[in-house]
């Protein structure tokens, strides 16, 4: 057991379970967009990077890819769900079909703001694919068009998800042991 694995309380989704679900999501996305002229798949850094890399290889269409970084201030004393783009896409999205890829939807603030922005920019359509969703934490309603797994409100790490920037390189999704942060 390596140093990171010692901090995992339990494995929620194994490598194999994740890959099997991604194959299904990729098939569904390929089917749904098969008649679209173009598809721009946008990964939200950094959490989605591992999922993004696996997902796009299960999409059998000639897609384009882009990445964005956003930071959100969810402290109610600052603002409710203010989202700042710290790295934007390098292309126009006007009349393009856009599919965002996230690792997790928690309160929903980040993606509801970003998706609203892209609708205003004139995208032909804006959809969302997320590996995980924590519905217990939701503060704004947000449709997740393609969802890997629903999870309870636990601290999850691995497969792109971090705690204090670590554990992103674990090959599975696990629950972080309380001993690490208590
Ligand atoms: C996480 C996640 C989403 C957002 C979800 O990113 O990747 O972008 O939070 O939360 P919300 O639904 O409450 O808005 P984070 O800010 O932790 O950055 P990271 O992806 O670089 O880890």
Task: Tell me the layout of helices and strands.
Blueprint: E1 8-13, H1 15-32, E2 40-45, H2 49-56, E3 64-73, E4 82-87, E5 97-105, H3 109-120, E6 125-133, E7 146-150, E8 156-157, E9 173-176
Parallel strand pairs: 2-3, 2-5, 5-6, 6-7
Antiparallel strand pairs: 1-9, 3-4, 8-9
Helix pairs in contact: 1-2
This protein binds 1-O-pyrophosphono-5-O-phosphono-alpha-D-ribofuranose.
Q: How would you describe the overall organization of this protein?
A:
Helix 1 (15-32) crosses helix 2. The protein has helices at residues 15-32, 49-56, 109-120; strands spanning 8-13, 40-45, 64-73, 82-87, 97-105, 125-133, 146-150, 156-157, 173-176. It has 182 residues and is of the alpha/beta class. Helix content is 21%, strand content 31%. The protein is built from 3 helices and 9 strands, in the order E-H-E-H-E-E-E-H-E-E-E-E. The chain has a 6-stranded mixed sheet, with helices on both faces. 1-O-pyrophosphono-5-O-phosphono-alpha-D-ribofuranose (PRP) binds at residues 44-47, 72, 102-110, 162.
Key descriptive features of the protein:
single chain, 182 residues, alpha/beta, 6-stranded mixed sheet, 9 strands, 31% strand, binds 1-O-pyrophosphono-5-O-phosphono-alpha-D-ribofuranose
Biggest β-sheet strands, sense, barrel:
6 strands, mixed
| Succession of helices and strands | EHEHEEEHEEEE
Quaternary: single chain
Q: Tell me, what's the shape?
A: globular
The ligands bound in this entry are:
1-O-pyrophosphono-5-O-phosphono-alpha-D-ribofuranose
Rg: 16 Å
Q: Which structural class do you get from the secondary structure elements?
A: alpha/beta
Strand content: 25-35%
Helix content: 10-25%
Q: How far do the termini sit from each other?
A: 22 Å
Total number of helical segments? 3
Query: Using DSSP, what is the number of strands?
Result: 9
Low-confidence stretches: none
Mean pLDDT: 95
How is the largest sheet built, in terms of strand order? 4-3-2-5-6-7
């Amino acid at each position: 057991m390596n140093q990171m694995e010692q901090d995992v309380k339990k494995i929620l989704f194994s490598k194999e379970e994740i890959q099997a679900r991604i194959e299904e999501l990729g098939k569904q996305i390929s089917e749904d967009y098969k008649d679209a002229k173009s598809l721009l798949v946008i990964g939200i850094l950094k959490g989605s990077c591992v999922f993004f890399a696996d997902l796009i290889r299960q999409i059998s269409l000639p897609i384009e890819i882009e990445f964005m970084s956003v930071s959100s201030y969810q402290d109610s004393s600052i603002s409710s769900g203010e989202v700042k783009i710290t790295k934007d896409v390098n292309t126009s999205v006007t009349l393009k079909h856009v599919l965002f890829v996230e690792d997790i939807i928690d309160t929903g603030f980040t993606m509801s703001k970003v998706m609203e922005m892209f609708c205003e920019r004139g995208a032909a359509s804006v959809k969302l694919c997320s590996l995980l969703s924590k519905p217990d934490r939701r503060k704004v309603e947000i449709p997740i068009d393609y969802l890997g797994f629903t999870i309870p409100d636990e601290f999850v790490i691995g497969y792109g998800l971090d705690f204090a920037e670590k554990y992103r390189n674990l090959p599975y999704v696990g629950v972080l042991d309380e001993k690490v942060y208590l």
